[in-house]
Write a structure and sequence with these properties.
The complex is a heterodimer of chains A (307) and B (312).
Chain A: H1 2-34, H2 52-58, H3 61-93, H4 110-122, H5 125-135, H6 142-149, H7 166-191, H8 195-203, H9 208-219, H10 221-236, H11 238-247, H12 261-270, H13 275-299
Helix pairs in contact in A: 3-7, 3-10, 3-13, 4-7, 5-11, 7-10, 10-13, 12-13
Chain B: H1 2-5, H2 35-68, H3 73-78, H4 90-97, H5 101-132, H6 138-147, H7 153-166, H8 173-198, H9 201-209, H10 214-225, H11 227-242, H12 246-251, H13 260-269, H14 277-297, H15 299-307
Helix pairs in contact in B: 4-14, 5-8, 5-11, 6-8, 8-11, 9-10, 11-15, 13-14
The chains are: A mainly alpha (307), B mainly alpha (312).
């Protein structure tokens, strides 16, 4: 029996673990090793150079810009997205006019809102990015077209071409994509909060704002926190890469105004032929990601409320 | 107290306007008659307005894309908001054949079908063993998988590109399938492990007593029991893999083998099609519609599938 058990365990774990080790774990380890070499990626020869890549990185202006933009995304994106999503979810679930027999209820059409808000979540980030690239087009785009329609002919920003605006335009697209997911997620969380809590609060004369901050938010805290981690990983990962790579001029421009860490890793490795340097920036990205996760976990830690 | 001065359920009519100006912070006002009416109305108008505004902001760009896909280029340029004069279905045909959307669609279908089956099979095998069997290294392997969820994938892609180049897997469909499976495993294993833990042990034990092997118990008893979990994580992976952009951009650079998202980006940036806006919009809509339609039909399952992992 014991013998059969171990044979079974090994048999079942071998394939997934091997695949995972070869395609995920091993490249991670390799990339940390490569960050100490002068490997170009173009030829198989390379030699160890110690911390030369790291010294170079700390003097690289583009790296600092990328880091700065990534950190801005990391801080701004979760705040806006989760804030909007909490507001919408609260309105949809608890914000409705009071009806007979129920202390709290959703607004009318809450089902529709939940379905519609979720649309962007099922679309490819690439498709969304292309769509908004055209929407932002200064001459033929939807947004400036709408501004002209309402008579704001003087206000025709060059959205993605304006170094001061470009990063915000891209942030807006990421917010547009993700709010709906969290509205649905928080709605599910709010639905599991017992109704008596709200009834008791209402009997005590609490306003809806108070109800939100004293009842809904504390009881939803775990979900908000995991949402925060999820948004952070998104702001540093594939989604941020995709929108900047597709939408921005250059990409990363104008004048490095939108470049982010994952994009710079990609460009260093596959455009500039500096694979070792790319992995160095990648290690910096890893450090930022882990530091972020640690901070959120520490700040967000509080006693778990059982209900 | 509140139950007595709650306004009657007449929509749109503030029952008791109250002496306060609308918009005054409600929380610090003394409780009295009319308070609920005033606060409720102002908040209701404001919140409904915001909800409707966001719904419009979400739906409008999608409608704009559908509308533009039926217009001529001139129509798109002159009046971004105008309705199409006639429905130019030829845009769709042009996108499907000349812009190779048909081929990209097929490539995506093959890649996603292969990797979805592989992810579910390998993921559930690993998760089952990790959830149900005690053995040295169990926790370590579990955290090895789960840790992969938070690592920046781009870091691994640089060496992976050259590994795949040397092994001949670069720019091949099967290579891409293997990579998709590998990068889908962390979440799949995480999700299914907690799912297998919730399943009752008695059924598996009964099967074992009846003489079924471990393998047979897994495929004939446990997998059917795990169906709801497999559907959830399957939907999650289907959308993630169908919409994947970063992995194919780095690891699949052969124009012949492009997937849909990649093909559309190439189309929107390539000089050759720069003029064909209507064709591009048609391509976008071709890529969008199947997923949106599937979402509307399987709305409940999709939402459960995508949000299941995040709640506890």
């Amino acid at each position: 029996m014991q013998h059969g058990k171990y044979r079974f365990i090994i048999g079942f774990l071998a394939a997934p673990l091997a695949l995972y080790a070869v395609f995920v774990i091993w490249p991670f380890i390799q990339s940390i090793y490569y960050s100490f070499t002068d490997w170009t990626g173009l030829s198989p020869e390379f030699s160890m150079v110690g911390f030369a890549n790291y010294t170079k990185m700390f003097q690289d202006e583009v790296f600092w810009k990328s880091l700065q933009h990534s950190v801005v995304l990391l801080l701004v994106l979760p705040v806006i997205t989760l804030g909007l999503a909490l507001f919408f979810a609260f309105m949809i679930n608890v914000g409705g006019r009071r009806r007979k027999g129920a202390a709290v209820g959703g607004v009318r059409g809450s089902g529709f809102y939940k379905i519609a808000y979720f649309f962007p979540q099922v679309l490819s980030i690439a498709i969304v990015a292309i769509l908004f690239q055209f929407a932002y087009d200064p001459a033929q785009g939807m947004i400036n077209g709408a501004l002209r329609t309402v008579g704001l002919d003087g206000l025709q920003p060059n959205w993605l071409g304006d170094p001061g605006l470009a990063l915000w335009c891209i942030t807006a697209v990421l917010v547009w994509c993700t709010v709906g997911f969290f509205v649905v997620l928080f709605s599910a969380g709010m639905a599991s909060i017992p109704r008596d809590f709200y009834e008791a609060a209402l009997l005590d004369g609490a306003s809806r704002v108070t109800t939100f901050f004293r009842i809904t938010l504390p009881l939803l805290w775990d979900t908000v926190q995991s949402g925060w981690v999820y948004m952070g990983i998104l702001a540093l990962g594939a989604e941020a890469f995709a929108v900047v790579h597709i939408m921005s001029i250059g990409p990363g421009g104008p004048d490095y105004a939108t470049t982010v860490l994952p994009l710079y890793v990609y460009q260093a490795a596959f455009r500039d032929g500096q694979a070792a340097y790319a992995t160095t920036i990648g290690v910096a990205l890893l450090v930022v990601t882990l530091a972020f996760a640690a901070v959120v976990m520490r700040l967000g830690r509080r006693e778990r409320l059982e209900f | 107290m509140k139950t007595t001065d709650t306004p009657p359920a007449v929509p749109g009519a503030p029952a008791v306007p109250g002496p306060r100006t609308p918009g005054a912070p409600a929380g610090d006002a003394p409780a009295g008659t009319g308070r609920k009416g005033g606060e409720g109305t102002v908040l209701n108008v404001f919140s409904h307005g915001m909800l409707i505004l966001w719904a419009v902001m979400v739906v409008l760009p999608l409608l704009w894309a559908v509308m533009s896909s039926f217009k001529t280029d001139a129509g798109i340029f002159d009046e971004p908001w105008g309705l199409p004069d006639t429905l130019h279905f030829e845009n769709w045909g042009r996108a499907w054949t000349e812009a190779h959307m048909g081929e990209y669609f097929l490539n995506t279908l093959v890649v996603v079908a292969g990797s979805l089956v592989g992810t579910l099979l390998l993921g559930s095998m690993a998760a089952y063993v990790l959830a149900r069997f005690e053995f040295p290294g169990n926790r370590f392997i579990y955290f090895l998988f789960v840790g992969g969820m938070s690592f920046p994938v781009m870091l691994a892609l640089v060496p992976l590109f050259f590994v795949m180049e040397n092994t001949g897997l670069l720019n091949t469909i099967h290579g891409l399938i293997l990579v998709y499976i590998a990068y889908s495993l962390p979440f799949t294993v995480f999700f299914l492990t907690s799912f297998f833990r919730t399943l009752p042990t008695s059924i598996a034990e009964a099967a074992m007593l009846d003489g079924a092997s471990h393998t047979r118990t897994f495929f004939q008893v446990m997998l059917p029991l795990a169906r709801p979990g497999l559907i959830s994580v399957g939907i999650f992976n289907f959308l993630g893999q169908w919409n994947q952009y970063m992995l194919p951009t780095v690891l699949n650079t052969d124009p012949e083998k492009r997937v849909l998202a990649q093909g559309l980006v190439e189309l929107s940036t390539s000089q050759g099609y720069k003029g064909d806006y209507s064709g591009l919009f048609a391509g976008l809509v071709i890529a969008m519609l199947p997923v949106l339609a599937a979402y509307i039909v399987f709305q409940r399952q999709v939402v459960t599938g995508l949000t299941a992992g995040a709640v506890k």
